[in-house]
Amino acid sequence: MSQIRIQSAITSPLQIDKSWNAINVSQAVGDMAFGSCQLIDETTDERWVARQGESSDWPINIPYGHLVGASFLCENSGDVPLDVFVYIALIDPDGITRAFDWNPRGTIPNRLNPGVGYYSNYIGGVQLDKNGLWVIYGRLEYDVA
Amino acid sequence: MVKELFIGMAPGSVSQNAGYVAEKGWNAIYVGEEPPPPPPSGKFPWLWVGIGSAVAVAIRTHQIMKREKHS
Known about the structure:
- The complex is a heterodimer of chains A (145) and B (71).
- Chain A is mostly beta strands.
- Chain A is built from 1 helix and 10 strands; from the N terminus they run αββββββββββ.
- Chain B is α+β, with helices and mostly antiparallel strands and 71 residues long.
- Chain B has helices at residues 2-5, 45-70, and one strand at 20-31.
- The interface between A and B is medium-sized, with 40 and 21 residues.
């Protein structure tokens, strides 16, 4: 029994160790936020804006047959520059896209620094020829620049 | 712990240009009802002018005939 103890003491020296949680590495993550959306009745030249985070009186009641258009604002709300591709569409009550504008991947992106906003292209000249709810759809595809 | 964070990401294959997508829809416009169809008079104005003229002539003729009877 005593032999075993002596051997153990010789082959297993005392150890002491410590670790420090020293560095936290995280990959840069881009973040985009939608801002206000603008709707224009081109027939009467009336304009309405739905601001992000605020209540609005949308949907707006617009008479049948009027011409309308729209655009929206987006913003780089992250900490890194982003290359942004913007898609906007106006969709009728049957789910049919009646107008759209798009700069797809492969085209020149919009490079936005942190905190910088960007207006989508304006889509207009759409005649309201269906009853019901019309939707403005926005899509942002973005990469860390 | 660190390994868990990178599950599914082979070393060296993590791209800074991984794409992100954000979407939003605004219920923007409500269209209530279609406009009423235009009245038929809009299509045939000459017909209503003709009918009006005929009625006027008939009334006037009736008045003249009445006056002649009395006299």
